[in-house]
Amino acid sequence: MVRRVESGDVELHAEALFCGDRDTAEVIPVILLSEAEAPSSRWPQSLRDGLAERAGGVIWFDTRDCGRSSYVDVPYALEDLTVDVLMVLDAFGVDQAHVLGRSMGGQIAQQLALAMPQRVASLTLLSTTPGRREEFGMPEDWLIDKMTERLFNDPPPDGPGRANWLVEQLEWFSGPVFAFDRTAALAAAVAEVAECWRGANGHGAAVVDAPDIIEYLEHVALPALVIHGTADPVYPVPHAQALAERLPQSQLVLVEGLGHELPDGFVGQLLDLMDRHLLG
Predict the structure, then answer these.
(1) Radius of gyration over alpha carbons of the chain, in Å?
(2) What pLDDT does 133 receive?
(3) Higher model confidence: residue 23 or residue 99?
(4) The domain spanning residue 129 has which CATH number?
(5) Residue 144 falls within a domain, yes or no?
(6) Phi/psi at 204 (nearest 5 deg)?
(7) Which of 261, 271, 251 is nearest to 229 (CA)?
(8) pTM, full prediction
(9) Domains identified in the chain, total number
């Protein structure tokens, strides 16, 4: 099921999978909120299929300024990306959803839970942060150096170079517990570049300029599952600990050796965690 969702002057590419003949109004699906600069095609198919089976439905979409959604030339904020989520839910006739947000998507999920808690059944916050405070720790120095170098240099001009450029960054984010499958990652990157290459966009600025909402999270009276890798080079573990401490109905799960990635090998454990704590 595919929709083109209009959100102001922006069109969003959204997809959904519902199991069986169930009326979508009777299902509380999971909606997936992606990390910065990542099209929704990066969510593992096994995760989408598993969530559709367990929850009855799953929705995923390309964030504005990314993938197959509209590109945006004017600045926008996390609040705008939060409104986009609501527009997608409305487009599929969904009043309430379980929300799985990864990295930037996790921050959008928190904004959504604060602004419209009646639309959120539960939160799963993966590899994310309650706010970019130095007290929670900074990204690894080597990663800052690599990302800064990319910031001041243009991406490769051709398809193969761009695909390798994407794979290289994905490998930086991966931890030691799951072997990085470069062959599979490159095949996926080639397809992504061919279909929806975008490169840098306004997501980073939206994250950096986001208001500090940390002190408001104590008012989020929703079941929340905070999952974080101990080898995350972007957000050290104290980010997850601070997030779990501030959400009153949260459970923190630290995954030894997981980085800032979502590998296929982790999907089964993620599904079980969500099933046990949120979907059951």
Answers:
(1) 18
(2) 86
(3) 99
(4) 3.40.50.1820
(5) no
(6) -60, -45
(7) 261
(8) 0.96
(9) 1
